[in-house]
Amino acid sequence: MVLKIEHLTGGYTGVPVIKDINLEIKAGEALGLIGLNGAGKSTTIKHLLGLLRPQKGQIRLNDIDLSRQPSDFKRQVAYIPETPVLYSELTLKEHLELTMMSYHLNEKNAWVKAQELLQLFRLDDKLEWLPIHFSKGMKQKVMIVSAFLADTSLLVIDEPFTGLDPLAVSNLITLINEATAAGKMVLMSTHILTGAEQTISHYAVLNNGTIEMVGSLNAIRAHYGLTEADPIDRIYQVLNQEQQNA
Ligand SMILES: Nc1ncnc2c1ncn2[C@@H]1O[C@H](COP(=O)(O)OP(=O)(O)OP(=O)(O)O)[C@@H](O)[C@H]1O
Protein backbone atom coordinates (compact mmCIF):
# COMPACT_ATOMS: atom_id res chain seq x y z
CA MET A 1 0.00 0.00 0.00
CA VAL A 2 1.13 3.53 -0.70
CA LEU A 3 -0.61 6.88 -0.35
CA LYS A 4 0.29 9.37 -3.05
CA ILE A 5 -0.73 13.01 -2.99
CA GLU A 6 0.33 14.50 -6.32
CA HIS A 7 0.31 18.16 -7.33
CA LEU A 8 -2.57 18.88 -4.94
CA THR A 9 -3.80 22.45 -5.14
CA GLY A 10 -6.93 23.42 -3.27
CA GLY A 11 -8.72 25.27 -0.53
CA TYR A 12 -12.09 26.79 0.16
CA THR A 13 -12.68 29.28 -2.62
CA GLY A 14 -11.12 29.96 -6.02
CA VAL A 15 -7.96 31.19 -4.29
CA PRO A 16 -5.83 28.16 -3.39
CA VAL A 17 -4.70 27.72 0.21
CA ILE A 18 -2.43 24.76 -0.52
CA LYS A 19 -0.35 24.74 -3.68
CA ASP A 20 1.19 21.84 -5.57
CA ILE A 21 1.48 19.51 -2.57
CA ASN A 22 3.37 16.27 -3.25
CA LEU A 23 3.56 13.68 -0.48
CA GLU A 24 4.03 9.95 -0.31
CA ILE A 25 3.50 7.56 2.59
CA LYS A 26 4.51 3.94 2.15
CA ALA A 27 3.28 0.94 4.15
CA GLY A 28 4.79 1.06 7.64
CA GLU A 29 5.57 4.79 7.54
CA ALA A 30 4.25 7.60 9.73
CA LEU A 31 4.50 11.07 8.23
CA GLY A 32 4.37 14.11 10.50
CA LEU A 33 2.84 17.20 8.93
CA ILE A 34 4.18 20.29 10.67
CA GLY A 35 3.97 24.03 10.17
CA LEU A 36 2.86 27.27 11.78
CA ASN A 37 -0.81 28.10 12.42
CA GLY A 38 -2.50 28.69 9.09
CA ALA A 39 0.20 26.84 7.09
CA GLY A 40 -2.41 24.53 5.51
CA LYS A 41 -2.18 21.30 7.56
CA SER A 42 -5.92 20.97 8.23
CA THR A 43 -6.73 21.98 4.65
CA THR A 44 -4.47 19.19 3.36
CA ILE A 45 -6.19 16.74 5.73
CA LYS A 46 -9.65 17.90 4.60
CA HIS A 47 -8.65 17.14 1.00
CA LEU A 48 -7.33 13.75 2.05
CA LEU A 49 -10.66 12.96 3.75
CA GLY A 50 -12.56 13.99 0.62
CA LEU A 51 -14.20 16.95 2.39
CA LEU A 52 -12.78 19.48 -0.09
CA ARG A 53 -12.56 19.15 -3.87
CA PRO A 54 -9.09 19.73 -5.33
CA GLN A 55 -8.58 22.45 -7.90
CA LYS A 56 -5.72 20.41 -9.29
CA GLY A 57 -3.93 17.16 -8.54
CA GLN A 58 -4.90 13.76 -7.26
CA ILE A 59 -4.88 11.59 -4.15
CA ARG A 60 -4.48 7.84 -4.51
CA LEU A 61 -4.19 4.84 -2.22
CA ASN A 62 -2.51 2.28 -4.46
CA ASP A 63 -4.79 2.36 -7.51
CA ILE A 64 -7.83 3.79 -5.68
CA ASP A 65 -8.34 7.39 -6.76
CA LEU A 66 -10.20 9.51 -4.16
CA SER A 67 -12.10 11.58 -6.71
CA ARG A 68 -13.16 8.57 -8.81
CA GLN A 69 -13.83 5.98 -6.10
CA PRO A 70 -14.59 8.02 -2.97
CA SER A 71 -16.37 5.22 -1.05
CA ASP A 72 -13.61 2.65 -1.65
CA PHE A 73 -10.99 5.25 -0.69
CA LYS A 74 -12.79 6.38 2.47
CA ARG A 75 -13.25 2.80 3.69
CA GLN A 76 -9.43 2.59 3.84
CA VAL A 77 -9.09 5.73 5.96
CA ALA A 78 -9.76 6.33 9.67
CA TYR A 79 -9.58 9.83 11.11
CA ILE A 80 -8.96 11.13 14.61
CA PRO A 81 -9.93 14.82 14.56
CA GLU A 82 -8.45 17.44 16.84
CA THR A 83 -11.92 18.21 18.19
CA PRO A 84 -13.96 15.06 18.93
CA VAL A 85 -17.13 14.66 16.88
CA LEU A 86 -19.75 12.61 18.72
CA TYR A 87 -23.51 12.23 18.34
CA SER A 88 -25.18 13.52 21.49
CA GLU A 89 -27.97 10.93 21.35
CA LEU A 90 -25.73 7.87 20.89
CA THR A 91 -24.05 5.93 23.71
CA LEU A 92 -20.40 4.87 23.53
CA LYS A 93 -21.59 1.35 22.57
CA GLU A 94 -23.73 2.77 19.75
CA HIS A 95 -20.82 4.88 18.49
CA LEU A 96 -18.67 1.77 18.23
CA GLU A 97 -21.49 -0.12 16.49
CA LEU A 98 -21.70 2.73 14.00
CA THR A 99 -17.97 2.40 13.29
CA MET A 100 -18.37 -1.36 12.81
CA MET A 101 -21.22 -0.79 10.33
CA SER A 102 -19.49 2.04 8.43
CA TYR A 103 -16.32 0.00 7.93
CA HIS A 104 -18.19 -3.29 7.30
CA LEU A 105 -16.42 -5.01 10.21
CA ASN A 106 -17.23 -8.49 11.46
CA GLU A 107 -19.09 -7.61 14.68
CA LYS A 108 -17.87 -10.54 16.77
CA ASN A 109 -14.19 -9.95 15.98
CA ALA A 110 -14.62 -6.19 16.24
CA TRP A 111 -16.04 -6.42 19.78
CA VAL A 112 -13.00 -8.43 20.91
CA LYS A 113 -10.74 -5.66 19.58
CA ALA A 114 -13.06 -2.95 20.98
CA GLN A 115 -12.87 -4.44 24.49
CA GLU A 116 -9.05 -4.39 24.35
CA LEU A 117 -9.01 -0.76 23.24
CA LEU A 118 -11.67 0.27 25.77
CA GLN A 119 -9.70 -1.33 28.60
CA LEU A 120 -6.50 0.38 27.46
CA PHE A 121 -8.20 3.77 27.66
CA ARG A 122 -10.23 2.92 30.79
CA LEU A 123 -13.58 3.20 29.02
CA ASP A 124 -14.67 -0.44 29.29
CA ASP A 125 -17.23 0.24 32.03
CA LYS A 126 -18.72 3.23 30.22
CA LEU A 127 -20.41 1.59 27.23
CA GLU A 128 -23.85 2.94 28.10
CA TRP A 129 -22.63 6.51 28.67
CA LEU A 130 -23.72 9.37 26.44
CA PRO A 131 -21.21 12.01 25.23
CA ILE A 132 -22.59 14.55 27.70
CA HIS A 133 -21.10 12.43 30.52
CA PHE A 134 -17.61 12.36 29.00
CA SER A 135 -14.76 14.77 29.74
CA LYS A 136 -12.86 16.32 26.79
CA GLY A 137 -10.08 13.75 27.08
CA MET A 138 -12.58 10.88 27.29
CA LYS A 139 -14.28 12.11 24.10
CA GLN A 140 -10.88 12.17 22.40
CA LYS A 141 -10.28 8.61 23.60
CA VAL A 142 -13.60 7.51 22.03
CA MET A 143 -12.35 8.89 18.69
CA ILE A 144 -9.07 7.01 19.14
CA VAL A 145 -10.81 3.73 20.01
CA SER A 146 -13.13 4.09 16.97
CA ALA A 147 -10.26 4.85 14.61
CA PHE A 148 -8.12 1.89 15.71
CA LEU A 149 -11.19 -0.33 15.73
CA ALA A 150 -11.77 0.52 12.06
CA ASP A 151 -8.41 -1.14 11.29
CA THR A 152 -7.84 0.79 8.05
CA SER A 153 -4.72 1.00 5.87
CA LEU A 154 -4.37 4.73 6.53
CA LEU A 155 -4.81 6.55 9.80
CA VAL A 156 -5.09 10.35 9.72
CA ILE A 157 -4.55 12.03 13.07
CA ASP A 158 -4.95 15.75 13.69
CA GLU A 159 -3.10 17.09 16.76
CA PRO A 160 -3.23 13.78 18.63
CA PHE A 161 -1.65 14.78 21.91
CA THR A 162 -3.73 17.77 23.00
CA GLY A 163 -6.13 17.05 25.85
CA LEU A 164 -4.84 13.55 26.61
CA ASP A 165 -3.28 12.59 29.94
CA PRO A 166 0.32 11.26 29.80
CA LEU A 167 -0.85 7.65 30.16
CA ALA A 168 -3.21 8.04 27.18
CA VAL A 169 -0.45 9.74 25.15
CA SER A 170 1.85 6.82 25.86
CA ASN A 171 -0.89 4.30 24.92
CA LEU A 172 -1.62 6.18 21.70
CA ILE A 173 2.07 6.19 20.76
CA THR A 174 2.19 2.42 21.37
CA LEU A 175 -0.90 1.88 19.18
CA ILE A 176 0.53 4.01 16.36
CA ASN A 177 3.82 2.12 16.52
CA GLU A 178 1.96 -1.21 16.43
CA ALA A 179 -0.05 0.01 13.43
CA THR A 180 3.05 1.01 11.44
CA ALA A 181 4.81 -2.23 12.46
CA ALA A 182 1.80 -4.03 10.92
CA GLY A 183 2.34 -2.15 7.64
CA LYS A 184 -0.28 0.57 8.06
CA MET A 185 0.28 4.19 7.04
CA VAL A 186 -0.11 7.18 9.36
CA LEU A 187 -0.38 10.87 8.60
CA MET A 188 -0.21 13.00 11.70
CA SER A 189 -0.49 16.76 11.97
CA THR A 190 1.13 18.03 15.14
CA HIS A 191 2.67 21.05 16.80
CA ILE A 192 4.03 18.96 19.65
CA LEU A 193 7.26 17.61 18.25
CA THR A 194 8.73 16.26 21.48
CA GLY A 195 7.08 12.87 21.82
CA ALA A 196 5.96 12.71 18.20
CA GLU A 197 9.49 11.66 17.31
CA GLN A 198 8.77 8.32 19.00
CA THR A 199 6.32 7.47 16.23
CA ILE A 200 7.14 9.56 13.16
CA SER A 201 9.45 8.24 10.45
CA HIS A 202 9.67 11.45 8.43
CA TYR A 203 8.29 14.97 8.46
CA ALA A 204 6.83 17.30 5.87
CA VAL A 205 7.13 21.01 6.64
CA LEU A 206 4.25 23.10 5.30
CA ASN A 207 4.90 26.80 4.96
CA ASN A 208 2.29 29.14 3.58
CA GLY A 209 0.50 26.35 1.69
CA THR A 210 3.51 24.70 0.11
CA ILE A 211 5.75 21.84 1.20
CA GLU A 212 9.06 23.40 2.10
CA MET A 213 10.87 20.15 2.78
CA VAL A 214 10.38 16.47 3.59
CA GLY A 215 12.88 14.51 5.64
CA SER A 216 13.98 12.98 8.91
CA LEU A 217 14.31 15.03 12.06
CA ASN A 218 18.06 15.30 11.44
CA ALA A 219 17.50 16.47 7.86
CA ILE A 220 15.08 19.11 9.18
CA ARG A 221 17.59 20.26 11.79
CA ALA A 222 20.22 20.63 9.06
CA HIS A 223 17.83 22.42 6.67
CA TYR A 224 16.77 25.01 9.25
CA GLY A 225 20.25 25.49 10.72
CA LEU A 226 19.49 23.88 14.08
CA THR A 227 22.17 22.13 16.09
CA GLU A 228 21.65 18.86 17.97
CA ALA A 229 21.57 20.88 21.17
CA ASP A 230 18.60 22.97 19.94
CA PRO A 231 15.16 21.78 21.02
CA ILE A 232 13.37 20.63 17.86
CA ASP A 233 10.50 23.04 18.58
CA ARG A 234 12.94 25.83 17.62
CA ILE A 235 11.92 25.10 14.02
CA TYR A 236 8.77 27.20 14.60
CA GLN A 237 10.89 30.25 15.39
CA VAL A 238 12.86 29.72 12.18
CA LEU A 239 9.65 29.35 10.13
CA ASN A 240 8.24 32.48 11.74
CA GLN A 241 11.43 34.40 10.96
CA GLU A 242 11.28 33.18 7.34
CA GLN A 243 7.71 34.48 7.00
CA GLN A 244 8.65 37.85 8.45
CA ASN A 245 11.59 38.15 6.05
CA ALA A 246 9.46 37.13 3.03
N1 LIG B 1 -13.29 27.18 6.22
C1 LIG B 1 -12.39 28.03 5.72
N2 LIG B 1 -12.72 28.94 4.78
C2 LIG B 1 -11.81 29.80 4.25
N3 LIG B 1 -10.50 29.80 4.60
C3 LIG B 1 -10.10 28.90 5.53
C4 LIG B 1 -11.01 27.98 6.14
N4 LIG B 1 -10.31 27.21 7.01
C5 LIG B 1 -9.04 27.65 6.96
N5 LIG B 1 -8.91 28.64 6.07
C6 LIG B 1 -7.66 29.35 5.71
O1 LIG B 1 -6.78 28.41 5.13
C7 LIG B 1 -5.44 28.68 5.56
C8 LIG B 1 -4.85 27.39 6.10
O2 LIG B 1 -5.58 27.01 7.24
P1 LIG B 1 -5.43 25.58 7.93
O3 LIG B 1 -6.58 25.43 8.89
O4 LIG B 1 -5.26 24.55 6.89
O5 LIG B 1 -4.05 25.77 8.71
P2 LIG B 1 -3.34 24.81 9.77
O6 LIG B 1 -1.94 24.63 9.30
O7 LIG B 1 -4.14 23.59 10.00
O8 LIG B 1 -3.35 25.73 11.06
P3 LIG B 1 -3.47 25.39 12.63
O9 LIG B 1 -2.11 24.98 13.08
O10 LIG B 1 -3.88 26.71 13.21
O11 LIG B 1 -4.54 24.34 12.82
C9 LIG B 1 -5.51 29.82 6.55
O12 LIG B 1 -5.15 31.00 5.88
C10 LIG B 1 -6.95 29.87 6.95
O13 LIG B 1 -7.34 31.19 7.20
Automatic annotation (TrEMBL):
CDD domains: ABC_DR_subfamily_A (cd03230)
Keyword field contains ATP-binding: yes
InterPro entries assigned to the protein according to its UniProt record, in alphabetical order: AAA+_ATPase (IPR003593), ABC_transporter-like_ATP-bd (IPR003439), ABC_transporter-like_CS (IPR017871), ABC_Transporter_VariousFunc (IPR051782), P-loop_NTPase (IPR027417)
Keywords: ATP-binding, Nucleotide-binding, Transport
Stretches assigned to the ABC transporter domain: 3-233
SMART domains: AAA
GO molecular function: ATP binding
Protein name: ABC transporter ATP-binding protein
Naturally occurring in which organism (per UniProt): Lactobacillus xylocopicola
